[in-house]
């Protein structure tokens, strides 16, 4: 694993930690304030975000070692597949006759927003502390003739 992949992996872990903290907090709040149905609804939103970002950032770890065009192509194709896949999966699950009566309004949105914000915050916090060797070298101004 090269340095770019290592940094991408560290950011993924930061996102996972942040996303889980927020998502589990919202699910706990949903259970306490809205009951089992609210917790199930919040858990669906949390799971959708974690799956979306986990798969995406795992692919970014792989793409970091590929040539530029291949890496970008892989990330963009994976994004399209993840958007369609998560949307289709949620649409299917939310329309199931056994799930529909359990769902509680507002908790899906709250869990998705909280998990996304916490995931991105975790990634940014980790990225802000990473070292990039190209920036660690001492600057030498050009020599005048």
Describe the overall structure.
This protein has 145 residues and is mainly alpha-helical. It has five helices and no strands. α1 runs antiparallel to α4, α2 runs antiparallel to α3 and α2 packs parallel to α4. The longest helix is centred in the first third of the chain and has 32 residues.
Any chance you could write out the topology, listing elements then pairs?
Elements: H1 3-34, H2 36-63, H3 68-94, H4 107-128, H5 133-136
Helix pairs in contact: 1-2, 1-4, 2-3, 2-4
Concise synopsis of the structure shown:
With 145 residues, the chain is mainly alpha-helical. It has helices at 3-34, 36-63, 68-94, 107-128, 133-136.
Q: Give a quick account of the main beta sheet: strands, pairing sense, barrel closure.
A: none
Radius of gyration: 20 Å
Helix content: over 70%
Briefly note the structural class of the backbone.
mainly alpha
* Mean of pLDDT: 89
- Runs in which pLDDT lies below 50 for 5 or more consecutive residues are none
Termini Cα gap: 43 Å
N-to-C order of helices and strands: HHHHH
């Amino acid at each position: 694993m090269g340095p770019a992949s290592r940094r991408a992996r560290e950011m993924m872990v930061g996102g996972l930690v942040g996303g889980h903290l927020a998502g589990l907090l919202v699910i706990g709040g949903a259970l306490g304030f809205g009951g089992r149905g609210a917790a199930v609804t919040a858990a669906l939103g949390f799971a959708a975000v974690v799956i979306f970002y986990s798969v995406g950032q795992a692919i970014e770890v792989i793409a970091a070692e590929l040539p530029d065009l291949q890496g970008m192509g892989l990330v963009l194709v994976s994004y399209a597949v993840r958007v369609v896949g998560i949307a289709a999966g949620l649409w299917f699950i939310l329309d199931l006759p056994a799930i529909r009566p359990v769902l509680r309004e507002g908790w899906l949105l709250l869990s998705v927003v909280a998990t996304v914000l916490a995931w991105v915050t975790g990634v940014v916090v980790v990225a802000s502390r990473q070292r990039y060797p190209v920036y660690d070298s001492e600057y030498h101004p050009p020599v005048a003739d």
